[in-house]
Each structure stands twice: as structure tokens, then as C-alpha cells.
Sequence to fold (239 residues):
Amino acid sequence: VLVILAGRSGFNALAGLFLSLIFLIGWLVPRIASGGNPVLSAIIAITAVSAVTCYFVISKKELRVIPVIGALGGAAGASLTGWVMVSLWQLTGLESDSAALLASASPFLSLRGLLLAAVMIGSIGAVLDVAVSVTSAMGELYAYDPSISAGRLWQAGIGVGKDVLGSMINTLILAYLGSSLPFVVLIATEGADFVGLLNDPHIAQEILRSVSGTVGLLLAIPATAAAGVWLISARRRGR
Fold:
């Protein structure tokens, strides 16, 4: 249906999705399961996923590297925020039943690292959306006016990013809330107050994902805009 409605763009989107899933399931999961560093593996994975996605989504090949740089900047911000919150909140990565079962089956795995890797992988989709939107806007402006100044390009990238940011933050946080809604309702029925909810490790883990993803979105905007200004300016000087 997507291919029928969207044509070549729909096909490219599906191709990028399938290749990303193949890489994540075929390489990332076995690597972590065999004892590989979860955070380092996640960095490699999101780089590959970003590159594949941008290759199929961005039609102008000279612009494809821009959202990749922006997405990596956002993912780095999400990872650093997650690491700080894990340390301050003293999360162990054992907050879910599946994580506890994994710890008993594979005690050599770093569950904290796995939690941070999950934060990075979970945020990359929204971060890429923002990076691609900013890149597309800057690319169209440059195509319309090749003499546009670097300052105007920067303002346009930041402006588009701000407009997209509000809806993407809602999408990210509501998705995490929706996935844990039955558990939140269960805790609420027990009479827990707001502070009690915040201190529950399961809820804390979802807040960690939401806040880290939001920081990733925030940092992806200037990272993408800066990369776009640099690449387009360099291309103009090379002419």
C-alpha cells in the first residue's frame, strides 16, 4: 500500500527500514548477546542505520551526510544524558522482568550499558526525523537561492527545527508513556503519590528514555544546521 500511494519514495522508505532491521537484528543483537560492548555497538548501529536511511530518503546525494552528522550529534547527547541520569538515579538496568531474566541467563552482560544502548536506539528514529526535516529545508533554500548567506541558512535550519521539535517531543514522550501505561495505572491504583511514581524504578526508566530522547532532539537541530552550513558553504567555495 505504501508503494502504491507514495511510489518510489514509499519503496525507498521500505527498503531503508528493512535494511536497518536486518542490520539491527542480524548484527547488533548477536554482538551484544555474545558479550560485545552495548554502547559501542549501539553507536556503530545508529551510524549504519542513519546512513542507510538517509541514502534512501534524501534524494540529493550531496546532502546525505548532513542528517547523518546531525543524528549522531543528537544520539551522542541522548547517550550522555542517559549516562548522567542512570548514575544519579542509581538505575541498574534490572528494572524490567526481561532484564532480570537476561541477567540470570547471561550474567556477563552489562545491563547498564544495555539500558543506555536501548536509549540510543529508541531515540534515533525521532532524531533522524528532525535531522532530515532540517536538511531538506536548507537544501531547498540553497537550490532556490545559491547565493544565500551562511547566516540565513543557519537561521532557516534552526527555525524549521524549532517548529518540528514540539510535535516530535510529544510523539516521543507519548510513545514511551503509551508503552508503559498499564504499569502506570497499576501503580496508581495502589495509591502511590507523584513522588512515589517518580521513584519507582520502572517509571524512572521510562522517564530516562523520554528525557534522553528529548535532549537528543534538541542537540540534533544545531548539529544538523551547523553541518548543513559547513557543507553547503564548502560546496559553494569549491565551484
The two ends are 42 Å apart (CA to CA). The chain has a mean pLDDT of 83.
